[in-house]
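User: quick one
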Amino acid sequence: MAFLDFVPNLGRQVLLTIPNLGAAARFLLRSLVAVINRHFSIQQLLKQVYGFGVRSLLLMMVAAFFTGMVLGFQGYYALVRFGATSALGTLVALSLLRELGPVLTALLFAGRAGSALTAEISSMKATEQLSAMEMMAVNPFAWVVAPRLWAGIIVVPILCAIFDLVGIFGGYLISVPVLGVDGGTFWAQMQSNVTFSGDILTGLFKALCFGLVVTWIAAWQGYAAQPTAEGVGNATTRSVVTASLAVLGLDFILTALLFT
Amino acid sequence: MAAEALVELENVHFSRGPHPVLAGVDMRIPRGAIVSLMGASGGGKTTMLNLMAGTLAPQSGRIRVAGQDLQTLDFEGVYRLRRRMGMLFQHSALFTDFSAFENVAFPLRRHFRLDESILRKLVLMKLEAVGLRGAAGLMPAELSGGMGRRVALARAVVMDPMLIFYDEPFTGLDPISVGIIATLIRRLNDALGATSILVSHDVQETFSIADYGYILAGGKIIAEGSPEALRASDSELARQFLGGQPDGPVPFHYPARDNYATALTGSAAAGEVI
Ligand SMILES: Nc1ncnc2c1ncn2[C@@H]1O[C@H](COP(=O)(O)OP(=O)(O)O)[C@@H](O)[C@H]1O
Ligand SMILES: [Mg+2]
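Assistant: Done. Structure below.
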């Protein structure tokens, strides 16, 4: 029964999503172009960059450290069978730079900053703060949405770069002092096999796309929420779930496109 | 009603989906007056304020504010007009991450580049006018309901608007705060030479300060006139509303489906009646 319900349910979800997608796309466009509105302020943008950064930095660093250490263990386990532990530095770095850094940063960002952003915008809507702005002839897209959206686009690549660095350090700590891989080889191999444009920039570009998508979904869910206490709660949950799935889906597409 | 009209509505129709909210409304708000707008909850009063402020557009009909036809104005034109309007929202709508001072300063900061000392003077003057100069540094969460409403009022008038909207300014306040707000509405209107539109259920308090009143029911204006004229109105609907009688042309019973037994025992739809 449940399975038979699944197909029409999925169909209904898709049909319900399509008109919403149009509205969400218009929302994104309005927010992106609001940078030229006279009520857009660099100060607000910096405040949001700082807010997002402070909110997620420690979380990112802890997560990155553990991820890097696990990569060290698992990579060693796989490589030691082929006597190829000299490639461990390369493995850790490539895994982080190309894949785990951008994806995990984006997922953590969606859970931490994205959900907070949805809650903030939807409560501003529920308490008529957005309408009040509109009444004061201040465009809420320029004052509220645009700075947050652009801040997401700026912050996620930066957080990703930090994630990569901390992760590589975690991988090094396990590989060299703990598992006894030669330190010189670890770094030298990494240096000669990681390319700047192919690996580092690709990863940061992914992070930028994820930053846009996560912040867009979070802001849109907040903006489109039912203006009630329950609506705020629902929107926050939906924001995290949708943004996480979108990151994973988009990651597949980007990886396929950028794969070289 | 000889005075020139600041706001004019002509045969305004507005609906949300298939559900008509306003079905042909005509109104005339004379310059300098406090005009009250009364009607049942969900009757379209807030919608009407939004139409006059240009945040919503009617499906048909004309709305003129200060001689300008809102339907022919572009986005910039509406925004320019709105800078000369103030609105006190039903839930105050203060910005939660700004202090009382910064809330009041917000429109000034966004629209003008003022010297900090001049800005301070202007903001404190408005806070003084609502009796809250001393609360300038408090955050919205630290203000009582009545104080929050007064800070919002100071913010609504900080640009010296020509037109002020009040959306249920008395709702949820204690009797003393209600009296204070009512006095402030009258005093600010006259001091600023503004025109005010006051949406309220509080007949007593509203009629004590309003110059003229409209009663909205079923998407139409069913009665209008001075407070005395409205009180003496022979319209049954107006009498029911002003007298607060539970039953009359607006029925006490929400239309039930079959009999009250089904409503009591159960379905979710019946549960919503309450
Ligand atoms: N954003 C909205 N979306 C859909 N319907 C709305 C919205 N706002 C108000 N309505 C509906 O429009 C009608 C009039 O609402 P409103 O103008 O707020 O009434 P009032 O202020 O007189 O209580 C109500 O039936 C309400 O449910
Ligand atoms: Mg209302």
